[in-house]
Amino acid sequence: MMFRDIMLDECQWLIALKEQTRIPKALETFVPHSLQRLTCETRLYESGLFTVPTMPKQSPALTPEKRPPTLSDVAAEAGVSRSAVARVLLGTGGEHVRVSEQTRLKVKEVAGKLGYAPNRNAQQLRGLASKMLGVIVDTVNFRVMAERLFAIEEAAAARGYRILVGRVRSGEEQLNGYIADFIGRGVEAMFCLFDLEPGRDERVKKAFYRHFRKVIFHGRAAWRGGFSVQIDTASAIRAAVEHLVANGKKRPALSLWNEATDELMTVRRQAFTDAIAVHSLESSPGLIWDAASTSAIPDTQTMDRGVEALVVKEGADAILASNDIWAVRFIQTLKARGFRIPQDVSIVGYDDLDISRVVEPALSSVNPNHEAYANACMDLLLKVAHGEPMKAAEKNVIVTPSLFVRQSS
Are 240 and 361 found together in one domain? Predict the structure, then answer.
């Protein structure tokens, strides 16, 4: 039955009851305003299309066959104590309840057979940990964030936790809604997986700071004393420049997709400039090109501008692209103009997506090390969730990426 049909039935019953009995004024105001606005129900009554319904019968008590299985059901079926089942399925009891591996497997088997699922609301009422964490994502580069998110989910599962995920894009109402929903569901901590865009810190501080501070941030903590996990982007750029120089390149260039909307592009610019100086290479402002693109996926005109600016005008013999998508587009554009990869121009991407291994030639790329990132994220999340004391240096974890060298460089 549809929700509106249910409301219609209730309104019909109330209208009919009002016509046959004298209802106190106070009871009349109890009828929801939403029901009063359903004028079609009144017409149905006036037209005589229904009769006065009888009072609803009380629902029968759930029988063991109909109600959800409980810990006691699992314990009876497995032939073990309820505390042993709780230890296996809920993680309660601490070291006071010892369970053998054979018993653990038996309990898991029976729980699956009966279709047992923990009652999270009941757990919260008893003050038990929910074993759930929240992740809120806001990004223009969802390919990379999705891989990172999958890695976090695997790391959480390995620790006996589940992940609730919400994806937002700019809207404050949507962000606040997810935070409230996650709090209501009893998440122990949250991870804010947002791009480092201008205004990000103010936005998330406004949403989180007063309501929920057990949160860690991607890239940089949003407030003083906060928690974060970040990729050492600067070290990746230095490693790429060192690799190119070791392979005889004299004029490497850096391509940025939009420095004004992505703080990490500024980090790359500085790291690239420092690396060029370390290797005593010629420094030219023209070898750093900011596409100022409004899209994370470049179009043909943008790539033509990039090749003209870096290769044709500046004579670049290598390009460090913003990410793998831009790197592949550079390869396609350069090959279409008759340039050889890597003989004339080497290309290095960033993110090490699957496309880097299927493009011709295979693309050298920086791997952000999602597994290490996810483990660092989970370790920090659980410390925050459990309120463990931490030194300032422990609140911000840095993950080192790796350069995977392939045929493009």
Answer: yes
267 and 350 in one domain? Answer: yes
The CB-based long-range contact list for 270-273 (8 Å cut-off, 24+ gap) reads 270/234, 271/233, 271/234, 271/235, 271/236, 271/237, 271/238, 272/237, 272/241, 272/320
Q: Which two tokens stand for residue 207?
A: 């949403």
Per-residue pLDDT reduced to its tens digit, 287-338:
999 999 988 789 999 999 999 999 999 999 999 999 999 999 999 999 999 9
User: Which pTM does this prediction carry?
Assistant: 0.70
Instruction: Give the domain CATH number at 105.
Output: 1.10.260
Domain membership flag for residue 201: yes
Q: What is the DSSP string of 202-255?
A: HHHHHHHTTT---EEEESS-SSTT-EEEEE-HHHHHHHHHHHHHHTT-S-EEEE
* Number of structural domains in the chain: 4
Query: Does residue 375 lie in a domain region?
Result: no
Residue 201 CB coordination number (10 Å): 17
Give the number of other Cβ atoms within 10 Å of residue 303's Cβ.
20
Identify the domain containing residue 95 by its residue range. Answer: 71-118
Proportion of the chain above pLDDT 70, given as a percent: 79
The two three-digit tokens of residue 332, written as one number: 């396609």
* Cβ–Cβ < 8 Å for 162, 134: no
Residues 248 and 363 in one domain: yes
CA separation for the pair 313, 331 (Å, rounded): 18
Q: Under a CB-based contact definition with an 8 Å cutoff, are residues 150 and 156 in contact?
A: no
The Cα–Cα gap between 200 and 151 comes to 24
Q: Are residues 342 and 244 in the same domain?
A: yes
pLDDT reading at 403 higher than 60:
yes
Question: Residue holding tokens 């089942």?
Answer: 85
Q: What is the 3-state secondary structure (H, E, C) of 280-348?
A: CCCCCHHHEEECCCCCCCCCHHHHHHHHHHHHHHCCCCEEECCCHHHHHHHHHHHHHCCCCCCCCCEEE
How far is the C-alpha of 16 from the C-alpha of 375, rounded, in Å?
62
End-to-end, the C-alpha distance of the chain in Å comes to: 63
In this structure, is residue 151 part of a structural domain? Answer: yes
| DSSP symbol at 169 | -
Residues 322 and 333 in one domain: yes
Q: 383 lies in a domain?
A: no
Closest alpha carbon to 221 in 392, 61, 355: 392
Amino acid at 120: R
